[in-house]
Amino acid sequence: MVWERAGIRAAGLLALSLIFALSITALAGAAAEFEPNDSRETAAGPLAGGTDYAAGFETNNDVDWYVFYLRAYSQMDFSAANTAGCSYSEPYIRLLDKDGKFVESFYGGEINQVNHLRTTLAAGRYYFEISDSSSSCVGDRYKIRIDPAAAVTASPVCGEAIVAREAVTPELAKVAEQIGYVNGVVAKRTEKVTIARKRLKRLKAHRASRYAKRDARHDLTAAQVSLAKILEKRASFEALNGQLTASLNTANVQITSAC
Average pLDDT, stretch 43-51? Predict the structure, then answer.
């Protein structure tokens, strides 16, 4: 009977140990959503709009990264709150652009007190970098949300196509401006070549001195070289314009099919 009681007691302790271990594992798993997402390169996402995302901090210095895409220039409402853990702790959210440059930041609310960041943003890729305002509250839980849902796409193909379009469009405008300027220079240098050619022809017709004709030929050659250089420059701008236009067309096709 003693051995039986001892066996029962041991089995009970083993069961309790297993339950405790499973509980610890469950808690650790609850705080590990989206991991590893500790850098911009490993950011979780893309996040969808109109959706609550819940996660937690695994260590004192844990930082969580998320990526999301905006379809167009939009008025946004970002919200966040601490949902479990230290009552005085808050998630600190930094909003970054596609290159990881700081845009804005805000603190989420304390336990079940939702705070908001309302701002207007252009289309493209953005990141959340989220850390705990208190380094002493390991295991804090938080939730984040992006509204309105219609402003966000969870498709990475759509999102990256939008990023490409937003990057190419201003470059195309710059190149078009440069081509316009170069065309003006081409017109002026073409006129100089025409004037120099007429001058040389006139000197030949009037049997001018060889020195005068030599100077006229020199001026004509200089004008032609100058024109050739600007024409070469225009050709390079036109080639770049073609490449950018092709990239824009590709992005627009992807946006049409994936967004």
Answer: 96
